Design the sequence.
């Protein structure tokens, strides 16, 4: 079954946040002054169980979903995540199960366990190769070496084309664009530069801090020749280029929105469905799944949500004044 929204966009991708907790305090996501020792995270009873996630994922697959990405918070903080991955990878119709992580918990054993469980792909966040800048951005005691060790463990476990995501902020880490490409040249890893986005309400987003796609390409052109590559699939969010020794991508939600091809639905750890990363409203599916509703009722609930979807936030953010007053869900809560 293929369902479409009001702009004929198909539901193909499901992003599942398995926890709202994280061992980083990145200032563009979970700034430490907000997410401090007094911050109240979700309790175990509030978050979806593996059984509930699997049940929902089966229904999403019946509605045309092909890809599932596990996010957080930091998803590897969820105990026995490999057991969930193993079940998800066996769902009929799901062709790809992936994971986004900061890499700190990608030990040799964890990486091997994830690979054996059926995980197809890994994306690792790394915002600087400079030790001090990395600590300033991530708000942790860890170093870039810790993340690089995790990437190497994933490669040794058999993961290929690992994506390395770097959120770029002007005068913060834009100096690291070239070093990042040099570091991962001929490594088999794909670096993806992400424009600093206005997700949530606590990351002090300002348009002047954005390094847009055009400027990222100008910086790269000073050191490398590159040519564009076609998308792997129509709803892929990153624009792609090849350079000598590798490939890089840019996710340009600010300067070049891709709402028209968006095929994603987001499920939070506590069972709220969001039809847009920048949405200020959600749909409580946990309440339904923990009631006496049938699977068909759950399916109808999801179909109705997607059929009525008309989100185009990135295309409208600078055109509609009221957009500025929307109180959006935080990045760590919605799963990125």
Sequence:
């Amino acid at each position: 079954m293929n369902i479409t929204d009001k702009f004929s966009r198909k539901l193909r991708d499901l992003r599942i946040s398995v926890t709202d907790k994280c061992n980083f305090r990145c200032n563009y996501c979970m700034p430490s002054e907000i997410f401090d020792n007094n911050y109240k995270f979700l309790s175990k009873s509030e978050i979806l169980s593996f059984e509930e996630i699997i049940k929902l994922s089966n229904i999403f697959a019946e509605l045309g979903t092909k890809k599932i990405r596990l996010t957080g918070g930091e998803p590897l903080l969820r105990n026995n995540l490999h057991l969930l991955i193993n079940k998800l990878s066996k769902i009929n119709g799901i062709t790809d199960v992936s994971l986004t992580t900061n890499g700190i918990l990608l030990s040799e054993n964890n990486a091997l366990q994830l690979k054996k469980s059926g995980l197809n792909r890994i994306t690792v966040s790394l915002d600087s190769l400079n030790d001090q800048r990395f600590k300033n951005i991530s708000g942790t005691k860890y170093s870039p070496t810790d993340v690089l060790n995790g990437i190497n463990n994933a490669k040794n476990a058999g993961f290929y084309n690992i994506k390395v995501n770097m959120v770029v902020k002007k005068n913060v880490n834009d100096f690291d664009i070239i070093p990042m490409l040099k570091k991962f040249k001929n490594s088999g890893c794909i670096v993806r530069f992400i424009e600093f986005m206005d997700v949530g309400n606590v990351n002090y987003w300002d348009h002047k801090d954005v390094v847009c796609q055009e400027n990222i390409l100008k910086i790269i052109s000073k050191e490398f020749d590159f040519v564009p590559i076609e998308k792997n699939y129509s709803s892929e969010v990153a624009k792609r280029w090849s350079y000598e020794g590798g490939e890089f991508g840019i996710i340009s939600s600010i300067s070049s929105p891709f709402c028209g091809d968006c095929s994603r639905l987001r499920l939070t750890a506590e069972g709220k469905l969001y039809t847009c990363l920048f949405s200020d409203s959600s749909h409580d599916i946990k309440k339904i799944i923990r009631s006496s509703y049938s699977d068909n009722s759950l399916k109808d609930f999801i179909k109705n949500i997607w059929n009525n979807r008309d989100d185009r936030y990135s295309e409208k953010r600078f055109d509609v004044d009221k957009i500025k007053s929307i109180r959006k869900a935080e990045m760590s809560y919605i799963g990125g």
In short: Residues 13-334 form a domain with the TIM Barrel fold (CATH 3.20.20.70). The CA atoms of residues 8 and 182 lie 41 Å apart. The chain has one domain: 13-334. Residues 50-62 form the longest helix (13 residues).
